[in-house]
User: Which sequence fits this backbone?
């Protein structure tokens, strides 16, 4: 499988302050790739560089084998982008905007445009400025998808969409994907990444700290261990490599453990326990776990 | 040319309004000639008693007041001020609007180069300004021509019109440059009015100052009505300066826009 996106040691500084540092990862064609990290970690900076909205300080990125800066207009033919921010031109109706959007692509987008609008219950004759936030967002979705792009880039896509619309939206994205489109989606909400992505890159303070399969991320031997002890124990009793997020409240102890499960069993065997529970942590917890390092 | 058409449509209403107001007000003020015509002697005497500096600032050349075209020179002092604001407004707005309305992300991720985007935008703005200018010039031509019963210097009128448009082009290009250099422009009118009024004030200084150096600093001094009416020509050094300003501002505007980081708002 060839790569739709290749990001190679990409850095961006704003003056002296950091945007992103040495970001490297690849997204294969046909993949649904998640890009997660807290606000301000550099997700948007990375995406905006891919779209040639901002220029990298060093490093490069290619999309479909072409340089994302020099060949930007060429690449853009195959990209559909949904900005996180809602936009509109004064006094324009939904239909006018969609037609304006379609006029940039040298193909007939009319059918797809109407199809998408009706799927999303979008009224084409309303003025965009009169629409609610969620409806404006739908306009964004339709303009991003109406030319059947090969790569769809979504920046915090579900912001402002109600749960029902989110459902429809994710269905649409899945359909685009099964049609063959590659998806890159940034989010700080793990739940939605978990819902549709196959792989995920985790970014923290401008650096990529891991690229993992979602399944691997969930199955990686991270466990949430909760236990109750017969006598109160101090923190020292849990000095073991792999333990993090340790919380001791009286007799209740809780922590995340990552590593060989036998090591933790050996440690616990020496203690007098009254209760023990080991669960799969949700992505949110794994995420926190990464950040706690 | 879809951006060009889009920009024409977006800015049409505004341009029509500016055109109507400029033409109607300009034409109406010119009609005052009918009133002073009868008392031209008394009027001139009164004007002569004004301090020289004030006359200079207001562009009052009493010797010219006796003809409709000469009177138009007086009308122009105000028309030029507002025409400059009109031009600067569109110059500042045409690019900065995209950031303000958060449409920059939309437009700049379409399969079109930034060079083409700014070219089509400039072309659209110049088209609108030119159309507005033509309507204004034709309306005033009609008024002046009827007042002077067809007898006035067409050459001088043409030069006055050309100066009008060149002045607009200068303010347009400077406005464009300012807007791409600025990080974000919250509102257009304060910026354009501020700069135009500043240039107008400098112009008032320039006419009262001994040296001519100051005149290069303000576009309002490049195509002086008084000089055109007297000599039927432009002042070469200022014409060249004006054209250079347009060229440099546009060039810098292009380079900056193409290289600019477009930040999320």
Assistant:
């Amino acid at each position: 499988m060839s790569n739709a996106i290749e990001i190679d040691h990409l850095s961006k500084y704003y003056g002296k302050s950091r945007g992103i540092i040495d970001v490297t990862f690849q997204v294969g064609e046909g993949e649904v790739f998640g890009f997660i990290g807290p606000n301000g970690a550099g997700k948007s900076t990375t995406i905006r560089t891919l779209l040639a909205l901002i220029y990298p300080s060093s490093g490069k990125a290619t999309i479909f084998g072409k340089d994302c800066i020099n060949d930007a207009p060429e690449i853009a033919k195959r990209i559909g982008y949904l900005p996180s921010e809602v936009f509109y031109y004064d006094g324009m109706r939904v239909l006018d905007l969609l037609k304006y959007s379609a006029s940039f692509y040298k193909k007939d987008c009319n059918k797809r445009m109407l199809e998408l609008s009706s799927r999303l219950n979008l009224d084409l004759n309303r003025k965009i400025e009169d629409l609610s936030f969620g409806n404006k967002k739908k306009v964004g979705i339709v303009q991003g998808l109406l030319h059947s792009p090969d790569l769809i880039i979504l920046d915090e896509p579900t912001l402002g969409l109600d749960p029902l619309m989110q459902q429809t939206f994710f269905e649409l994205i899945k359909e685009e994907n099964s049609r063959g489109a590659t998806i890159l989606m940034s989010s700080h909400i793990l739940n939605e990444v978990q819902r549709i992505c196959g792989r995920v890159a985790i970014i923290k303070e401008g650096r990529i700290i891991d690229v993992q399969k979602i399944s691997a991320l969930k199955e990686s031997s991270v466990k949430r261990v909760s236990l109750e002890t017969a006598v109160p124990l101090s923190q020292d009793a849990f000095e073991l490599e792999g333990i993090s997020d340790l919380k001791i409240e009286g007799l209740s102890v809780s922590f995340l453990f990552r590593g060989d499960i036998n090591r933790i069993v050996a440690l616990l065997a020496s203690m007098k326990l009254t209760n023990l529970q080991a669960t799969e942590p949700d992505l949110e917890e794994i995420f926190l776990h990464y950040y706690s390092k | 040319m879809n951006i060009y058409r889009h920009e024409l449509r977006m800015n049409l209403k505004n341009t029509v309004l500016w055109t109507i107001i400029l033409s109607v007000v300009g034409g109406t003020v010119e009609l005052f000639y009918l009133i002073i015509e009868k008392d031209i002697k008394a009027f001139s005497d009164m004007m002569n008693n004004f301090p020289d500096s004030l006359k200079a600032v207001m562009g009052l050349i009493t010797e010219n007041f006796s003809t409709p075209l000469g009177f138009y020179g007086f009308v122009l002092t105000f028309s030029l001020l507002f025409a400059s604001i009109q031009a600067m407004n569109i110059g500042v707005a045409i690019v900065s609007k995209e950031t303000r309305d958060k449409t920059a992300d939309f437009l700049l991720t379409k399969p079109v180069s930034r060079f083409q985007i700014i070219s089509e935008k400039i072309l659209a703005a110049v088209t609108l300004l030119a159309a507005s200018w033509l309507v204004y010039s034709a309306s005033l031509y009609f008024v002046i021509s009827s007042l002077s019963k067809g007898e006035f210097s067409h050459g001088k009128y043409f030069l006055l019109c050309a100066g009008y448009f060149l002045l607009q082009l200068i303010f347009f290009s400077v406005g464009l440059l300012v807007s791409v250099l600025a990080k974000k422009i919250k509102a257009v009118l304060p910026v354009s009015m501020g700069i135009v009024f500043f240039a107008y004030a400098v112009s008032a200084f320039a006419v009262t100052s001994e040296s001519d150096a100051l005149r290069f600093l303000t576009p309002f001094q490049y195509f002086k009505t008084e000089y055109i009416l007297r000599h039927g020509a432009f002042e070469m050094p200022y014409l060249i300066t004006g054209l250079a300003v347009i060229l440099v501002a546009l060039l810098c505007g292009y380079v900056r826009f193409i290289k600019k980081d477009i930040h999320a708002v």
